[in-house]
Each structure stands twice: as structure tokens, then as C-alpha cells.
Amino acid sequence: MALYKNTMKSFSLSNIRERFPIFSQHPGLVYLDNAATTQRVDTMIEAMDTFYHKQNATVHRGVYELSATASQSFEACRTKVADFIGATSPGNIAFTKGTTESINIVASSFLRRKLRPGDNVVVSIMEHHANFIPWQMLCREVGAELRIIPISGNGDLDLGALEPLLDNRTRLVAITHISNLLGTFNPIEEVIALAHAKGVPVLIDAAQSGALYPMDVTQVDCDFLAFSGHKAFGPFGIGVLYTRQELKADIHPYTYGGGIVQNVMLDVTDFKPYPYNLDAGTPNIPGVIGLSAAIDFTRDLDRKACVEHVQGLSHLCRNELKRINGVKVLGEPLKTGGIVSFYIDDIHPHDVASFLDEDHIAVRAGVHCAQPLLDHLDVAATVRASFSIYNTKEEVEHLVHAVKELIKFWR
Ligand SMILES: Cc1ncc(COP(=O)(O)O)c(C=O)c1O
Known about the structure:
Layout: H1 13-18, H2 22-25, E1 30-31, H3 42-55, H4 65-84, E2 93-96, H5 99-111, E3 120-124, H6 133-142, E4 145-149, H7 162-165, E5 170-176, H8 188-197, E6 202-205, H9 217-220, E7 224-228, E8 239-243, E9 261-264, E10 269-271, H10 285-299, H11 303-322, E11 327-329, E12 339-344, H12 349-358, E13 361-362, E14 364-366, H13 371-377, E15 382-386, H14 393-410
Parallel strand pairs: 1-13, 3-4, 3-5, 5-6, 6-7
Antiparallel strand pairs: 2-8, 7-8, 9-10, 11-12, 12-15, 14-15
Helix pairs in contact: 3-10, 4-10, 11-14
């Protein structure tokens, strides 16, 4: 399958795999933990290496050439990210440490000043802790209510339950685009339309969709969007917060220090506007350079073909696992990303993951930072297989075979 837009390059699945150096270091590796972090693409590693070898300087503070070049590359990435997600201006894009920090910024620097006792915030039961705890903590602190959108039996968002949760005291809806446990692909356009009809802003947690699922923030009309570089073939420690133009002035500095100020007087400080008011201290410059290279790589992909490939693998995995006696696969969402969670009767998920590791299959076991959802499903923990563009049908078959072998061995 050609996964690149530019067919002149005639890159296929195997060519794509070659772009990820980890696989030449570990030829037998079956990497199925992409929901935790993807592997790194070669051009991203090279870009960061080149920065450190040849361009190393900090940004925005030096007038010398190296610093000016670093500043240009840094700001060019802001423009690139804006373009990548359909934002109208680079001024909507703030660099953060990752999705978690982006969400915490919206909680602390936006909502904390607006939320009053008796107000409410709406999230879904399928949120990652990163998009759950900040709202829970804020609501507890202020005396506001955290309202939860339930899911249907198959793991889809219960959209019909959202409208009654929204009222004139709702201050924000925060929802994941793709569930990191069930793989459920949420109908965010509908969620946004319902919330906006009541004048409520919406934050989209795009941690699981940022890499491959084309997102146009202007078209979907969200107010905030968060994603992480490391889940999108980019570096650790860098993420993005998109904020709608009209709400930028309501985002206040998150941490204080150098780089975010206009004027510091003895009694008061004037801050730069968003997004520059979030860059206190020296920013993660190589992270931004690496993110830029990762976005270049992703933009060259035929993302429709990539999504079909990844969804095809997860369907195959889900269907094959379901056929095995003693294996329970969580959820049957109508539309899924490349994530499959399962457990095996009487075998702890950590034992399953250790057994699979002996076969060089890397999967995650545990609660996946989604404890409210697991509690709701009355499941203690699961094994999660998550797929990306470099995974193959043979790898799914390898996983399924290993699970069958484990059950034979265990019983
Ligand atoms: C849906 C979702 N939201 C948020 C996060 C947090 O991302 P990060 O650890 O990069 O901040 C994750 C990470 O797994 C996730 O899956």
C-alpha cells in the first residue's frame, strides 16, 4: 500500500518502516504501544541532531546570527503547526510540554478565573486522566460540579446524554477525540455544535488523533485543542495548545519568569499576549525543531490511506482476538482509531504483557490512565495493542498467535 501522497517517491509500507531507525536496531520488534508513544522518524532525529551540532543557540534573546536563525526556525514551526491544524494564525499556537500541560494551562490559566461555585464542567467517562483530573481538581477547589457524559454499551459516546448536561452554568466541555482505551472515535463536530448552541466553549484532547487524523480547527470550530509531539513521530517534551482567536486574551501566564514580559516594574509586570505569555524561561527549542520535522513527514503522508491502514489493523486484531476462547475485547465502537484493549480470563494483564515481551511484542498493560472508564466497565486492567503506520498484518497475526500460545501454556 502506498502511504505517501507523492507517489513519485513510491514509498510503501516497507519504505515507511525504514524511516524509523528503531526497527533496524531491533529487527524483530513488534511495537504495539503507539498510543503511549510512537516511534521517531529519521528526519526528526536528524533535525534535532543538526540543531545541536550546528545551530545551537537560544531564541528571542540574542541579536547574533545563530540566535536569530534559531528564533526564525522556532517561529516558523508555529506557522507550520497553525497550517497543519487549520488555525487562522500562528498566534493561536502555544508550545507546551505536551497534551497534559496544554490541558492544565486551560484549567489554570483560563477556567480558574471564570469558574464560580455552582458552575459546571462537562467531560466524558472515557477521558484520559490528563483530561479528567485537572477539571476534577478545579471543580473541587471552586465548588463547581464535574458532569460526566456516559457511553453506550458498545463504547460509543452517548451523545443524547450530552444536551441535558449543558445549562447556563456550564463553563466548558472537555472531550477526547479518540479514547486511549477503547479506541472510540468521538463525533466532536456534534459535541461542539451542541455546546456552542448553549454558548459553551469546547476543548478537544487530540493526543490520540494528532498524528494521523487530519484536523481542521477552523472547520470543526473547537475553542481549544491539545496534542503531543511524541505521539506524532516527534520528540518527547513538546506539545501544542491551540486557542481560538477570541479566547486568547483570557489565557493568562501559567508560570512566571523571563521571556513573557513587556515591562517589569517594582510593583507590577506587564505580560506579552498569548501565546508568548506561556513561554516563561528558555523554551524547548530542539523539541520545536523536531516537531517541525515530524510535521513535515506527516504532511507528506497520504493520511487517508494511513488511517485506513491503521484502522484495518485494529479491526483485524479486534476480530481475531474476539474469536479466541477466554479473551474479552473491550467495546465495539462504531468508528475506532488504532487501539484494541483486551484481557484474558484468569491471567493478569501484566503477565500477558511479560509473556508477549518474550516474543518481542511490546504492548501496554494496566489502567492506561483511564481509571474512571475501567471502573465504569468493571474491569481492573487490560492489555492494550495500539497501531501505527509502520505496523503490519503479519504483526497482528503474530500477536494473535502469541495470545493463543499463552492460553495453551497457562491452562
Ligand atoms: C487521550 C490522551 N490524552 C492525554 C494524554 C496525555 O499525553 P501526554 O502524556 O503526552 O501529555 C494521553 C497519553 O496517553 C492520551 O492518550
